[in-house]
Amino acid sequence: MFNFNSWRHKSLLYFKIVTFSPISQNPLPLSLYFCTNTSHSTSFAVSYLIHNFGFSPLFANKLCSTYSVKFKTNQNPDLVLTFFRNHGFSDSQLRDTIAKAPWLLTCDPIKRVLPKFQFFLSKGASNSDIVNLVSMNPMVLCSSLENQIVPTYELVYRFLKSHKDTIACVNHNSTFFGDRRVASNIRLLTENGVADSNIARMLKTHCRTLQTRDMLKLVEELKDLGFNPSKATFGVALNAKTTVPEARWKEKVDTLKKWGWSDEDVLVAFRTQPYCMLVSIDKINLVMNFWINQLGWDAMALVKGSSVFLLSLEKRIIPRAQVVQYLLKKGLRKKTASMIYPFVMSDKLFLDMFIKRFEESSYLLKLYEEKLNLAYTTDKTCLS
Asked: Phi and psi of 50, rounded to 5°?
């Protein structure tokens, strides 16, 4: 039960007949709302949010308080809702948008919102693109068109060289326009010799990397580790360092050291394949356990072959390991040959080089396919 006495200011509970144009198809004739010791304009706004969007009294009151939302009539809010509906927003999308940015109900949509919609449309964005962008982060409408949206868009377009790709980028990263770090981080990367192609790749695949707070520190750290800013691996390493929290990074290093690696071995593996530090600790342990305890192979081989950690244990590593192990036992493959190469090559090349060329090809193929089929059977069982 709600305790009215717990409030610092006295509150009064009202029932009031309302005449708004609600989102709900079956509005209740009565709207229940809380009115604290605030102005009539605030209490009206609270009631409007409850009736039109189905918000709880407490949530509606919090929105009005947090965003200083006040209006005395439903004229402007109704105008705003009509504007958004005319631009393709569904009732549920409107509800989500207003829950994040209730101040929109007090704005002039023609002056505040329409120019931004027109800008995106002029670049090839569809109405659905705009709806998705605003629904995910309506604060983009709070950003200045001239000072934030246009400069950020043009900066991203400079690297992606395509309006379609630029629209896709900002649509998947809706906080871009309100984050001034993006432009400054891109400039910093450029000044430190990061190639345009690397920045373009980050924009397409690791966009959040460009929103990090400690970009200069990370760039210097990666340089000290031997990463070349002009190489593609620099972007991957940067993504790994910004994605994995420092404490989690240490846990992964400690896990690898338990399997016999040194700190230097971890750094070599990271330089060889930066993605290896994005692999979960469970995956690291599974691969190491199979490689060392079941196959009896040297963990040091994985230091410069850290790409193996990215491969599927059941669908790639285990089936191919059975074939390689058989060839080694029969003396059909030199023990000094690379232990990593058989796992990173394409399926066709593996079949040609490690199965079809040998007299025992039928047996090797059976050995290989048994493990492969088992992996896919297990997948289907898990999905059913």
From this structure: -65, -50
Structural contact between residues 146 and 170, judged by C-beta atoms closer than 8 angstroms: no
SS3 state of residue 272: helix
Q: How many CA atoms lie within 13 A of 222 on its CB side?
A: 30
pTM equals 0.73
Q: Which alpha helices (H) appear in 289-360, and where do they start and end?
A: 318-329, 341-344, 347-351
- Which backbone phi and psi does 15 adopt, to 5 degrees? -115, 130
- In the numeric block, the tokens 């670049």 are attached to 123
DSSP 11-78: -EEEEEE-----SSSS--SEEEEEE-SS-HHHHHHHHHHHHHH---HHHHHHHHHHHT---SSSHHHH
Q: Are 55 and 49 contacting, i.e. CB atoms less than 8 angstroms apart? A: yes
SS (H, E, C) 89-147: CCHHHHHHHHHHCHHHHHCCHHHHCHHHHHHHHHCCCCHHHHHHHHHHCHHHHHCCHHH
Of 344, 355, 349, the closest CA to residue 322 belongs to 355
CA distances from 338 to 2, 301, 312, 344, 350 (A): 70, 8, 19, 11, 14
Share of the chain above pLDDT 70, in %: 87
Question: Residue 339: helix, strand or coil by DSSP?
Answer: coil
Q: Which residue has the tokens 């025992």?
A: 360
Mean per-residue pLDDT for 225-229?
A: 93
Query: pLDDT class for 41, splitting at 50, 70, 90?
Result: low
Q: Please state, in angstroms and rounded to a whole number, the distance separating the CA atoms of residues 96 and 54.
A: 11
329-341 confidence digits (pLDDT tens)? 999 999 999 999 9
Q: How far apart are CA 320 and CA 314, in angstroms?
A: 10
